[in-house]
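Re-run with default settings, no changes from the original entry. Doing this only to confirm the output is reproducible before filing.
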Amino acid sequence: MAKSSNLLLYLSVFFYIITKPALAQTCSNYKFSSNTLFESCNDLPVLDSFLHYTYDSSSGNLQIAYRHTKLTSKKWVAWAVNPTSTGMVGAQAIVAYPQSDGSVRAYTSAITSYETSLQEGDLSFNVSELSATYQNNEMIIFATLTLPLANGGNINTVWQDGSLSGKNLLPHPTSGNNSRSVSTLNLISGASGGGGAGDSKIKKRNVGLQVSSWAGNQPGFSLALTVLSLSLSSVLQQLRCLLCF
C-alpha cells in the first residue's frame, strides 16, 4: 500500500513538472472570442502583456491586438509606436480604460513630453478600426495602423499601465517593470528586443512542436523521469517478491 501511494505521488509530481510550462499563458495558445486570427505574436517581457499582429507590407497596414492581463478595473493601459526614438517622448499611443458604466474608452494620444496627461489627439499616422474590451481582468486593444515600411521593418514600441482616479489617468510608476516596457519589433522577421528578459521570439500561428524536443528542454524533466523510473523499478521489485510466496 505504501509503495502504491509513493508511486501515485511520484506520478503526480512528474506530470505537474512536464505540464506546468505548457499550461502557462503565452500568446501562441490564446484564442480570441471573436475567432480573430493574427499571423504573429510576441510575449512581451514585462507588465503581463502580449502583442498579436498581422502586417501587410503592400498596404503598410499593421493590424494589432494588444492584451494586458491581470488588470483591475481601476487601471488604464496604453500601447504605442514611437517613430522617432525608443522612449516615451514622441510615442504615438493608443490608450484604453474601463468606465464606471461597464464600457471601455479607447482613443489615441500623441506624447510630446514627460508631463503628458494622455490627452486625446491625432497621431502622426492613420489609425482605424479602434476598439477595446475589458473582461476577466484582461484589457484588449484592437486597431489597424498605417505604417509604411522604414528602417528595415523595425518599429519602436512602448506599453504602459497606471492607476485611475475617476476618469483621470494618474501617472504610471517610473521604476521597476514600468521602466522596462520598451521594445524594438521587426515586422518582417518578427524578431524583438529590449525591455526585460522575457521571451521575445515570434510565435507563428499553426506551428507545431515536437513533444520529444519540448520535453527534453524542460527544467526538471530529466530528474522527474529518473525519479519515476526508479519508483517503477521499486514497485515491480516488490511485486516480484509478493509473487514468490
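Residues 221-243 form the longest helix (23 residues). The first strand starts at residue 40 and ends at 43.
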